[in-house]
């Protein structure tokens, strides 16, 4: 059942808010014992709030998410709750106010039942950290849920909530959504405020370059039903006076009535020499999806876009081009990386190996970093090339990730596969991860559809079409 359906049932008094919230909490608790997705439960508070909502129901029926339960990634600020990013050096941090998107969801009537796990500092495609441990895939405890919003994806997939709020700086909404078989959307830049999360959190927001970096990060929804994506974007989007990038010119009410006239550019090959080739089962499903869309009236155009390899490489320069903000200063106040490695070797690790690798990479890359002007020149050149393909009637169809969910820690062996998704952070474009099938070993197979800037309704509309035809999310048996 979608968040919209739950809201309708509550509004028509077919179910109470308490019934909606308590049934999801029961399911979340059962599933969480196996997956460790919710690391900051608010079950008692949520149930008390549900009872109060039922008492005042006649007053607040106009709220679009009235009584609908949800979760939030722990790195997104919720006033009074931990905001550690899974980092030892932030282990005592408590958020002093809500992130804008959180406040808007709460004002819309949604009820927060808990905070979810993430990769340390939201910077790795697996979900694990030294504070909360690792999150497992609800289809198999031996496999990753993806990162960095892996807790969100896992609990949505397991039926614990109809939707969750995550962040996406390099595929961090879409990769977990793909691994866990749910829908995940990264909005166009200048759409949803990043206020209350890096780089617009209380640590980095004072730096002038934080506004520049925020263009390439997004807050976005993860849902078990595609019909929730656009309504949720409508709620969390729009200016807040803090994130200076945001404008109010987006129309969240558009929906495709037909696929006739829609061009779908199919990208089934690997995008960069460093990346793995697309797995046969993922490639097969890409072509199957193309066939389905063609039958619905879309025009399928196989293509190869070599300039996207440059966009993949450019992702690493996003933070490096900014002045004042470095990973080291944001993470561990420039403490010695050698000391951190010694802590790890001695069994007293304060940092994940993934974070150490990223910090070492930053120090090396800084020696050859691009200037702000160089970065924008290359980025704009790629965008102009892509504009020849993307408009308000065309999309790209490609993998979210080149394989299905991998076993824990495999990302250390193949660390660059996130770039299939991260290139759309660089280009500031909307992209949706869509579950379309299952592999022979019963893991979700997902694909990604990306659109032109401001055309979020296109990939989301196609997600709705594909869900109706192919079935979309299915509850894992172990959940």
UniProtKB/TrEMBL annotation:
It holds the Pfam family Amidase. One of its GO terms (cellular component) is endomembrane system. It comes from Klebsiella michiganensis. Signal peptide: none annotated. This is Amidase. Residues 19-457 form the Amidase domain. It comes from the Bacteria.
